[in-house]
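Students often ask why we bother encoding 3D structure as a string. The short answer is that it lets us treat folding as translation between two languages. Here is a chain of 595 residues written in the first language.
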Amino acid sequence: MQMLGTSFWVDDAGEASIEQVSAPEAQAAFSPLKYGLSQGYTHKVHWIKATLQPQLKPQGTLATLYLEVQPSYLDDVRFYLPAKNGGWQEFRHGDTLRFSERLIAHRNFIQPVEFISNEPLTVYIRLQTESASMLVLRIGQYTDLLKTSNREYAALASLIALLFTALLINFSRSGFAWDALGWAYTFYLGAAVVHLLGVNGFVAEFLFPNVPAVANHWQSVTNWLTGCLSLFVFGLSLKIHQAQKVIAWPYLIGFLVCFSFIGFVLAGHFTQGMKVLLPFYIMCLLIGLARAVQLVFLHDSLALYIFLALSTAIFAHVSATLALMGVLPGTYWLMFGYQIGLALTFLVLQLMFLRRTWLQQQAYQAMELAAAETKAKLVSETQARATQRGFISMLTHELKTPLSVIRMMLGTRDPTDSMRQHASSAVIDIDQVIDRVALAAKLDEGLQPVQNQRVDVALLVKQVAAQCEAPDRIVVHAPYSLEVNLDQLLFQTVLSNLLSNAIKYGASSKPVQVTLKNMGLGLELKVSNVIYSRHNSDPTLWFGKYFRAPTSRAKVGSGLGLNIVQDVLKLVGGRVDPQVTDTQVIMRVYWPLKL
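And here it is in the second language, the structure alphabet:
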């Protein structure tokens, strides 16, 4: 065993010299140390006495041992080793010295110990610091300490790298959008990273090796900053402003007390201020824990994460405080309890923010979906209103002429045969408009069934052509007989509408050509008429509901004929292809046949 025993003594006045402390009559004042020194937040001077057992090298010579003191943020650490000619040698350490002035370039304070003889050697360590008065001793040969140190470097570097990665992720996620909680957590994470850099001695070793004042105050300032930001993040997460006054006001008071603690830090009274700050800080965490439980019962989606984060934060601070006060034994809790608890807190908070981001994305997608549905509904309503306006416009325009003819006949005492014939035609026109509107409505609502039956379609074409308004103008090219399975009513509707359209808008002195062909799996029906001049309207517009050509003002119609043709063909799985040349309009219909 290399260390035979350790003990400590508190120098309340801070004026004792090494000669007074090492005097035989002063030894009774020392209290044994089983683990490291843990005296809490105090500025008093502490003396540690360690008795070391010499160790032989394989060659039989005395080995040089190395005493390592942790933590790395202690201000003034002095080693006193017996001199060869009597008396004591003083070696100064601490973060108030430049890093280059250290005996061994290391984040902790390492003192070589050379033995004078094979007898045990007693060394004294004087500690005075503005931070927590705690001290952990390790002893061993340099290679052993180096292996342990390298493992600690790797573990601490991994922890800081993970936190720094989380910091970058959250910074990129927050971007430039204003999210109070997201930005608060990002700053809290950043403060924790810089705090751990100072607590573990990396600031003095790598960042400011020649500016000891920065390394000396880094731990206390970043400790204050991390604590304040943690309360701010928890307050936002808990919606503390929406809580009852009995919860909100104590939490707010505790936060303001912690925030005002910066005055103690800057004035160099960290230890005195921590005695005031820590109870208020723990009080805020406990209040937050109660609020988190309340939110859990209110079914807040993030409340359980906040509860766990607060629990780990309380664990970190309470365990560290109890270790500092000597309640929790062992150097493990003394050195790593706070850092492990802090890492767990950030792990839970990071999971909470991942969950929060997922919920926000879900809400955003739901809003996008709702917006798309609203937009589609608006478009549908706009189209419905346009259709309604077109319907009303069509009725008022197309029924006005036949009604005026009927009204004129009714106003004549002795109407002539010609007037009666015109009135009868007007009634037929009105009936056709109404029938087409009714059929269009059925097709729109999917209420028109397809009822196929065995039909001589060639005969049907000839019958429809003979019954139209100008049968003498129609020339039919069809087989003598062609029996197929199709819906007679729908086929007749398509053909009659195409013929009516061709007769109305074709040249009155030219014939309308109707051609019927059997294509095997379907029928090809072609209706063509001659035109005198080609107008510039797009043929695809002709199939719109209530569309009327510019030349149709003097003609009665509903503007639904070609629209009905298109809807019927969609219903049976067919299609219509309009073709326009300088002299002709050709409507080519494909009607599939069901075997």
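Translate back mentally: The radius of gyration is 48 Å. Keep this in mind for the problem set.
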